Amino acid sequence: MTAHTELADSYHDETSVFDSTPVAPAMPAPLHIVTPLIRARVHHLSVGFKLDNLQPARSFKLRGIGRLCQHYAARGVQRFVCSSAGNAGYAVAWAGRALGIPVTVVIPETTLPFMRTRIAALGAEVRCEGRVWDDANAAALELAQAPDTAYIPPFDHPLLWEGHASLVVELARQCDEAPDAILVAVGGGGLLLGVLEGLRRVGWRHTRVIAAEPEGSASLAPSLAQGKVVELASPKSVATSLCVRRIAPALIDACRGGTVVPVTVSDAEAENACVRFAEEHGQMIEPACGTALAPLYANHPSLAGMRRVVAVVCGGQVVTLRQLADWGC
């Protein structure tokens, strides 16, 4: 058993009154919630939509970020510093407010103004540095050198992946049997690493992961093809949450064995998926989430021969009603 096999749900474990063996204090309750799984038919597929857009911070990010922030809070950290294109910063700001710890979020120029406002509304200090997330991250790392300060990365930390793994642990309780595939969006790869850890924990060895990336910001596919991290010169997509120059290095080894199938989608396909999900399920989702759903709605060849799939509805924060209306025109 590795140090990362602790389940988020085990935070609620209680010591038996019949066991006199001393035990360590229980972890506090996680900041994330158990999200619903709703079912639908899409083409020939039985689909479960895992609604992590309904997390308190409106994306899956709170699973891992909440776990990491609680870890540092227990060690007396006095400030969190985060780099983010949007969702991670909002999740850190939310966690910081819940834990009573000040937060500084460093964002790139591509982060939309309404997201800056939303993050600041949670009480976080917001700074803008550079054109893409990687530039903002360099600035955040410098700020995090201050005493009693913890750097909270958006996707590249084992405790983040441990927290994200709770999504699959929940699925194992919500699904009658293992799905043939799980669809996820990929930017830096934190969610993908968490899903892979979760699959290992619950023993779903034959479940594929369809890893969807925007065409203009696809680092996973070339990195896996070359067996090393491929850095993009200028990632660009309407799915700004997924625009990073490079994936987490841990993905190279984690994706070995053929479980992960990388696919790319266009911005138009991601936008169309957002509109379709809103029309069919009455919920707003952002283009990063639309990226995960696009292969499903397009009946992508990677889904051939499958019967049961789960699509991770990863977030509904980086979107407005006006954008959704424009995409539907």
From TrEMBL:
GO MF annotation: an example: L-serine ammonia-lyase activity
Tryptophan synthase beta chain-like PALP domain: residues covered: 32-315
Catalytic activity from the UniProt record: L-serine = pyruvate + NH4(+)
GO annotation, biological process: isoleucine biosynthetic process; L-serine catabolic process; L-threonine catabolic process
Protein name listed in UniProt: L-serine ammonia-lyase
Entry keyword set: Lyase, Pyridoxal phosphate
Lineage top rank: taxon: Bacteria
Gene3D superfamilies noted in UniProt: 3.40.50.1100
SUPFAM superfamilies linked: Tryptophan synthase beta subunit-like PLP-dependent enzymes
PANTHER family: CATABOLIC L-SERINE_THREONINE DEHYDRATASE, THREONINE DEHYDRATASE, MITOCHONDRIAL-RELATED
Its EC number(s): 4.3.1.17
Pfam families named in the record: PALP
Family (UniProt): Belongs to the serine/threonine dehydratase family.
Cofactor(s) listed in the protein's UniProt record: pyridoxal 5'-phosphate
